[in-house]
Structure formats: structure tokens, C-alpha cells
Amino acid sequence: MTKQEFLFHLKGASLVSLKFAENYVKDKLTTDFKYNVILNASTDNPNLTQFEVYPEDDGKMKLDLTDNEVVELIYRNGKVPVWIDINVLKSSRKSTTFNLLCAGRYSDDKNEYYYNDNGSGPFGIKSPKLPIDYKEGKKFKLK
After folding, report:
1. In the β-sheet with 52-53, what is the strand arrangement from edge to edge?
2. What is the pLDDT of residues 58-110, one digit of tens each?
């Protein structure tokens, strides 16, 4: 996957995630996107040879990034995490912020990407964090 392809998938997944979140939240979601990236969210064996792993990323989080900054952060040696869960986190008048929860295993083989069969590459669209008292069909405000 090229950097350009990865950026394309990120932008597409962001739009789909925003549309999905609109089914759940009352907030107005804008198309000026920001991202919080949580690296190495999976627990991976550092002895894996099939994937590239970065144990130094354990516990790292980068906040308030642009789409290009996300690409620069997690596109490494032509490889990206095999799964990246994306969900709307918060909204302001100016921007919508997403969480990107990233696997620690990196690959350049599209067959390794968890969500490749649905056309989103490594990106899995997830709902916003549901409140404890969430009732199906009832929209809520993001915190």
C-alpha cells in the first residue's frame, strides 16, 4: 500500500465512521477531521517474523493529528497496522475527532488487513462509545 492509498483509506473510513456515528449521536459532526492515535493496542509477540512490530510504541498515544500527520506517524516502510479501529470520539464547532486504535503488527500484504474484504483496508468502522444507560434507537450527546 502506498502512502497515497493509505491516506485515501483513512479519509474514506473517516467519512463512513462519521455517517455511522450520526445514527447514534445528537451532535452535529463536521468534516474537518482530527485524530487521536493509540499505538500498539494489540498484545503481540515480538518474535513474530511474519509482521513488523514496534515494541517501543507500547503505551504511546498521539492527540489532535491531521490526516497527513496520521499517515506520517503510522505508515512505516511501506507497511501499516493490520487493523485500525476508527470511531467518532468528540465533536466541536470546528472539527470531529476520531480515535484510531491500532494493532501493533504491521504488514504490506493487503490479505493480512482485517477489514480488506469490505474495501476499507485495515480500517474497521466502530460505533462511538455508547453510554452505560444506552437504549437502542435513542441518540445521545458525545462527552
Report:
1. 52-53, 105-107, 80-81
2. 889 999 999 999 999 999 999 999 999 999 999 999 999 999 999 999 999 99
| pLDDT tens track for 11-66 | 999 999 999 999 999 999 999 999 999 999 987 766 777 898 888 998 899 999 99
Which of 139, 14, 39 shows the shortest CA–CA distance to 89? 14
Grid cell for residue 26: 445528537
Identify the burial level of 85 via C-beta atoms within 10 angstroms of its C-beta, where 0-12 means exposed, 13-18 middle and 19 or more buried: buried
Which pTM value belongs to this model? 0.93
Instruction: Retrieve residue 141's grid coordinates.
Output: 450527546
- What secondary structure does DSSP assign to the chain, as a single string? --HHHHHHHHHHHHHHHHHHHTTTB-SPPPS-EEEEEE---S---TT-SSSEE-GGGTT-EEEEE-HHHHHHHH-BTTBEES-EEEEEEEE-SS-EEEEEEE-SEEES-GGG-TTGGGT-TTEEE-PPPPPTT--TT--B---
